[in-house]
TrEMBL record:
GO terms for molecular function: calcium ion binding; enzyme regulator activity; gluconolactonase activity. One of its GO terms (biological process) is L-ascorbic acid biosynthetic process. Pfam families: SGL. It is found in: Cytoplasm. Binds 1 divalent metal cation per subunit. The active site is at 201 (proton donor/acceptor). Belongs to the SMP-30/CGR1 family. This is Regucalcin. It catalyses: D-glucono-1,5-lactone + H2O = D-gluconate + H(+). It comes from the Eukaryota. It comes from Anseranas semipalmata (Magpie goose).
Amino acid sequence: VRVECVVSDGYGIGESPLWDEKESSLLCVDITGRKVCRWNSVTKQVQAIAVDAPVSSVALRKSGDYVLTLGTRFAALQWKEQLVTTITHVDKDKPNNRFNDGKVDPAGRYFAGTMAEEIRPAVLERHQGSLYTLCSDLSVVKHFDQVDISNGLDWSLDHRTFFYIDSLSYSVDAFDYDLQTGKIGNRRSIYKLEKEESIPDGMCIDTEGKLWVACYDGGRVIRLDPETGKYLQRADL
C-alpha cells in the first residue's frame, strides 16, 4: 500500500473524501474554507468551487453531479455550471447549527447529522444536533435529536446494521437497519473509547466488515470488530 498526498495547500478542515468513478476523480470538502474540491487522477489537476456556507459532506447523484450538506441545507451541485441549488432546509429554529458528516446508504438515501457551530475544536453548545435522511423523493426524515457532534456513519456488509458516532459520547454505536424503509432502531454501544484515545470522528467499514475510526486530535485511526466489540489494531499517522 502506497500513501500519496495529492492535495495539501489551502485547506481549513478537509472532510468527506469521495471517489467519483465516472470522472476518475477524488472529491472532498473544506468546511471552514467553504469549498468543494475535485482532484482528477488523470490530469492531476485540482478544481474548487466556492459555496456560501460551511460545506461538510458531498455525495454522488444517480442523475449525475453531486449533493452537498451546506450549512443546514441539503443542496444540489452542478459541477460544470458551478451552480448550487437548495433542496431543503433542516434545523430552521437553530441558526447556530450546521451539518457535519454525511454518507449515502446502500439504497441511495443520504444520511447526515447536524451540530452547533464550535467555539473552538470540540467545544460547543451541547445537544443541539439531529440525524436526518434525505430520501430519493427529496423528503427528509428526522431520526433523533440531542446530538452533540454528528459524525462517522456506515453500514454493515449485509446492510442490516447502521453504525454511527456522536463524537462527544466517545462511543461507536450500532442500530438495526431496514434497507427497504431506511428505518433504524435498537441503538446500542459496540465500543467505548477512553479519553486518552481521543475523540471518535469519521468512520468507514472495510471488506472484512471491520470498522476504522479516525481519532480527532489523536493522530491515529483504530480498527474495531463490530461483532465482538474488540479493539483490533491502530495506525498512527
